[in-house]
Amino acid sequence: MATAQAALRWMRKICLSLPDTVEADHFGESLFRVRKKGFASCGEKDGVCRLVFQLTADHARRLLATDDRFEPYARQKDCVWMDAADVTDWDEVRALVLESYELNAANGREGPRVRRPQPRGAVGAHRRVRKRS
Predict the structure, then answer these.
(1) pLDDT, tens digit, 9 for 90 and up, residues 79-111
(2) pLDDT tens digits, residue range 11-62?
């Protein structure tokens, strides 16, 4: 059972150990981002310290159906939240954070730019086509 301050310390330790992550304030809660995409948050509202994670759709559905500690997060599809007071194993939280991080880090990556060949005679092609009169 974690207090809000202890939960935030744990979340910082877990989230900020991952590459390219930062912590930002988001409506009074701590939001952890990879590049510009939020992947987890921790904050207290109405006496409840909520830990929020984005998961694969299947994993989120499975947790919501089988584990009473998790609730759907209304603001974003495929996100769940749990009360930090219900955490019994921070390694479980670490696994959820890592899944959320990987989903969001992969979505934010720019892949290599691929040059596509241009058809002959296209604008910008290297060969110049001469007009016959």
Answers:
(1) 999 999 999 999 999 999 999 999 999 865 543
(2) 999 999 999 999 999 888 999 999 889 999 999 988 999 999 999 999 999 9
Count of domains in the chain? 1
Distance in angstroms (rounded) separating the CA atoms of residues 101 and 104? 5
pTM: 0.77
In CATH, what number is assigned to the domain containing residue 55? 3.90.1150.30
Residue 8 near residue 90, CB atoms below 8 Å: no
With vertex at residue 63, the alpha carbon angle to CA 12 and CA 6, rounded to the nearest 5 degrees, is: 25
* Sequence-ordered strand ranges (E) for the chain: 21-26, 29-34, 37-45, 48-54, 70-72, 79-83
Residue 130 domain-assigned (yes or no): no
